[in-house]
Amino acid sequence: MFLIMRLNRQDYVLERTTDGGFYAYLCDNMQxxxxxxxxxxxxxNLEEVMSEYIDGMYLVxxxx
Length: 64
Description:
Layout: E1 12-16, E2 22-26, E3 33-36, H1 39-63
Antiparallel strand pairs: 1-2, 2-3
């Protein structure tokens, strides 16, 4: 099950990196973060990371 979820602006923080790229992370879970060359790419990558993280949580739940 791989589901891409769309984020609202209040769900994440977007910061500019020193090399000119962007870093986005979730407000509620700083472990979910992603880089991108543009802010759109960083957000898209964050959505993918978040979906993979949630899928992993379901796998753990199924295992227990």
